[in-house]
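Write out structure tokens for Transmembrane secretion effector.
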Amino acid sequence: MAWGIDLRPLRIPAFRRLWLSSAGTAFGASFTAVGIPLQIYELTGSSAYVGLSALAALGPLTMAALWGGALADAVDRRRLLLVTGGAMAAVGAALWLTAGAASPASLFVLLGLLQGCYGANHTARGSTVPRLVPGPLLPAANALDSTVRWLGPVLGPLLAGALLSVASVTALYAVNTLMLTLVLIPVWRLPPLPGTGRRRARLREAGAGLRYLLGRRLLWAVAVADLVAMVFGNPVALFPELSQRTFGDPPGGGFALGLLTAAMALGAVLAGFVSGLFTRLVRHGRVITLAVCGWGLAVAAFGLTRRLWPAALLLVLGGAALMVLSVFRSTLIQQCTPDALRGRLQGVMTVVSAGGPWLGQLAHGTAGAALGTTWAITGGGLLTVAAVLVLAALVPELTRYRAGVTPAPPPPAPAAS
């Protein structure tokens, strides 16, 4: 078995262009992932406010992802990627230009707009991959996509931490704006990706993805497993406080904040570099369960650590587990969904995979303020492990699923006219 990164999907030019745009988007967004929480913490002095920023992000992300899913099934997905990508660049520019006069309220508003644009863009992107890549290559394609989406958060936070030592948070937003503008070039060069031909995406149709998911035990179990990992086991909201109070960063942020933020992404990238070890596995549901357990254990141990480098190493291990979870979650969902419904179901999964971390930030920010960082992080990690094991026991279809062997859930019945 080949152990290196599985590059076979990059032989497909259209996928290669989509892949490049994912890399640039992730790199730019990683600068705001450092800048916005840091600026909120500096303005308020409270991790609870950092956690509350999740409320500003989650509503727009949820609505845009669901509506964007309906649009992705109805219109040309290339055009949708261009429109939503351009909107992300515009909001990034607003963050850059207003950084010097920012308030918590203005940051919450711009964060909500940015996450709304991201929700629709990510939905269109995820539903496009199966159009460009044949089924047997989907795990490898998702591994490549996940690798570059995580590579940005490796390099970005490290560069952001270095940049913060010589410049202000304004510089972080400037880099984000530049990258979000440049990634429109490979998207422009994608082939047409027409939808189903419906004239408009009606609100009733936006819920079709959720109805399809809830009607199939295997699919909703995958969604719940991902939520468990991201809500109970996501301590990112506590990184600004930990970096200063536990690991010695100065006010304004520094190396420790950049290292903690980058460590999970580094683990994911390292896992991507050896993706040949796991992209040919067929027990996708079992791999998902084990990956969530590995993530929870790494987070629980991280919460007990008081030295920076061991803490970073645990986050690296956790990030590798998240990478494996991401690859097989996406692959299983894509393989078990008909193309005419992929946009809408991808909208639901965008809410889960991208909205889950925001709920996790809210939970950890609130719990950290009330209980302290150790109890919030370690307790969340152990709860993650317990919850996914209970889920696997209640839904045995999850661990029994074999790609190419277990029949996919049936397509939905045609809607009555």
